[in-house]
Amino acid sequence: MSEAAERPKAAKASRRAWSGAIQGRSEQFELKRQVVLRTAARVFSERGFHQTTLVDIADELHISKPTLYHYFRSKDEILLEVQQMAIAQIIDVPLEPESGHSTGLQQLKEFVSRYISMIVDDFGTCLIMTGVLPLQPENRLIVRKGSKDIEKMMREILRRGVADGSIAPCDPKITAMLFFGAMNWVPYWYRTSGEIAVDGLVQRTLDFVLTGLEPRT
Amino acid sequence: MSEAAERPKAAKASRRAWSGAIQGRSEQFELKRQVVLRTAARVFSERGFHQTTLVDIADELHISKPTLYHYFRSKDEILLEVQQMAIAQIIDVPLEPESGHSTGLQQLKEFVSRYISMIVDDFGTCLIMTGVLPLQPENRLIVRKGSKDIEKMMREILRRGVADGSIAPCDPKITAMLFFGAMNWVPYWYRTSGEIAVDGLVQRTLDFVLTGLEPRT
Amino acid sequence: MSEAAERPKAAKASRRAWSGAIQGRSEQFELKRQVVLRTAARVFSERGFHQTTLVDIADELHISKPTLYHYFRSKDEILLEVQQMAIAQIIDVPLEPESGHSTGLQQLKEFVSRYISMIVDDFGTCLIMTGVLPLQPENRLIVRKGSKDIEKMMREILRRGVADGSIAPCDPKITAMLFFGAMNWVPYWYRTSGEIAVDGLVQRTLDFVLTGLEPRT
Amino acid sequence: MSEAAERPKAAKASRRAWSGAIQGRSEQFELKRQVVLRTAARVFSERGFHQTTLVDIADELHISKPTLYHYFRSKDEILLEVQQMAIAQIIDVPLEPESGHSTGLQQLKEFVSRYISMIVDDFGTCLIMTGVLPLQPENRLIVRKGSKDIEKMMREILRRGVADGSIAPCDPKITAMLFFGAMNWVPYWYRTSGEIAVDGLVQRTLDFVLTGLEPRT
DNA sequence: CATGAATGAGCCTTCATTCAT
DNA sequence: TATGAATGAAGGCTCATTCAT
């Protein structure tokens, strides 16, 4: 029911352009691109996509607005890439090499760990909090496809777990969506800088979902 | 990981202004106001606050844009009232008159039932999907306050349940937020017009949260 | 080899919005639209399409820039309609009801009269001086089509004249284009406010084209 | 009434920078300058001055945008020089050394030949199709002055011809402008790569202007 | 000489809001 | 009450031009 509190501007960052995040030489282009993406992701999450102007992002980086267009074609493209980065963190890494040896429950734990790590990151937070509505229809489809693929991953894990007995019988579809809800809401209340580390959050989440609130005798 | 599918425009509504929803006499003003609010809530949720223009809302009602200003001072005020309507559905109704007789678990069940009913409604859906970022800072505080109050309600219930033994020991804060996450995400995937009725959804949610995924021996 | 000298701003027009050109009641919309078109045509011709901002046009009319968007969807649409107005002046009026009775030469004279009247008008001048390059590709095709149709008209007239002996044998294609050139260049040097009236210009043009520079014995 | 069809990109030019047009040694600078001018003239005519970016020109030459600034101070200067090149082709070459021996008609024929050769060239085409409106006011005056000088040339020739009886009596001013119109419009419809060679075009133009459309008995 | 990077200036377009009828 | 007309404010995007390497 709550949502992102504005972060304390990080002491207005260092005065240098690119906030001193760039030192390399020729691969600088890609590096700068990443810095823009991460900054944009953060600001989008803090203020909302439409409340964020390109000047806001540029200011944060101590660069000018047109400079952003050296790295991205449009504001929309920036958001698209941010969200694709988040999705790739889950999709691009296969769940486990020798997956044959692990139970569904074990896989689920690993998945939750990775998903939460993604969601508390700037990119993942932006994926959830900004959503896909601001995107152009065609880009919206791209991100939705990625999201659906991630959802499918969890459903598969649940099915496997139910099959091998490591997870209690349940409807994989509904369960997955309720589970994702619990995790997707994290950006609205959890701060990595708070008392609980990400590992702790993963553990709490697993406890909540695995044990259940009903006392076990 | 998924989000709102565009609703099918409700058969483009009847051709008459106000979509024929107004018949009364003098209290029409308040009625019309409600119709605007509900329509706005729906469209905001479908397209996003900033993607929705006042013309969109006016068109949906077959009225003109300035007419909206007879009922609301600003677009911001519309959103504020929508979200306050949602919050009021939870806040304004005390959980149970003689709450002394019920256990925490019983209260939790009632709370979940009411909260989910609220969240699948146009107002509640808009509260979650639009969020408070589009609101003016002062209005944002108002809604946040309401959300916090609702969160507090659940924490209290959890504490009571843990105390009376009807709920397994848990950290009320974390548990509440994860629980709210599971429910708040509902608007992104659940359709009241689908296979599962709201009652069913409440039951599934309770099952998910109470039983836990770990098999009980 | 010369081109439009900037017109002397017409004493900065009357101070009233719409330059006092609007008096009607309900058909005002269409009237205002026409006033915008004519003003835009004039300014486009004077300064060039890209050198003309929407503010320039709005200022000329003592209205604000967004007001232009009540009447037109885009700057491009304004130019398109201007040019279509010009073309319609030629295309929409059949050359002569009882064309069977007139020779090609007679038809040619009428055509020249009408074409020159069109070309010295604001719309026609803009058609020639602004050209179609600033238009969106799809709109460019529309105007080109109209231009081609007009060219075809003259070719047909020339053919008929050659056939009936009222015009000396010639290649209709080349002749038409050279002829159009003589007329299309008029906006670059002729001023209706100068010594020669439009009728006079028509006569001079016909003299030039019909008689030829070679002395007739 | 028609205008420039897009030229077929010249087989996208050779892949080498400067399109392989430069081989010399030290006077390369001036050579490269010329290549830029001709390329710019061509692209300006095809797409229009404002639709052409410096990147477009640089790409065509397989060089980078800032490199253009080694040869020209501004985009405006490029256009100015292009148009001055065209004008110089007419102005800088005296019409005929021993002009005393030739009639006005003979001079006219030579003038037309040279003017049309100029106008079908990249520079001349750009002079006409781009016009002087995009130029800075001061540069505009320079080009206008040149154009006026050329117009004066023809008027003088016409006067001489009328005086020596080789040209039929006519108003030199009007006649010159109509004549220029016929020729200036050539870039809008004539292609050197088409059926008619430039010599042929000169002849057709002379026929059109000298003989007249009225049948001579 | 060449160029990747960066930017100031400017324009089209949108939209919430106001006003006159 | 209702609305067509009008607008101030603001944002995304482009591009000629400059600068550092």
Topology record:
The structure is a homotetramer of 217-residue chains.
Chain A: H1 28-47, H2 54-61, H3 65-71, H4 75-91, H5 104-119, H6 122-130, H7 137-164, H8 172-184, H9 198-211
Helix pairs in contact in A: 1-2, 1-4, 1-6, 4-5, 4-6, 4-7, 5-7, 5-9, 7-8
Chain A binds a DNA duplex (21 and 21 nucleotides) through helix 3.
Your description of this structure?
The structure is a homotetramer of 217-residue chains. The first copy, chain A, has 217 residues and is an all-alpha fold. Chain A has two domains: 9-72, Arc Repressor Mutant, subunit A (Orthogonal Bundle), CATH 1.10.10.60; 77-211, Tetracycline Repressor, domain 2 (Orthogonal Bundle). The first copy, chain A, is built from nine helices and no strands. Chain A has helices at residues 28-47, 54-61, 65-71, 75-91, 104-119, 122-130, 137-164, 172-184, 198-211. Chain A is elongated. Chains in contact: A-B, C-D. Chains A and B meet through helix 7, helix 8 and helix 9 of A and helix 7, helix 8 and helix 9 of B. Chain A binds a DNA duplex (21 and 21 nucleotides) through residues 17, 29, 53-55, 63-67, 69-70, 74-75.
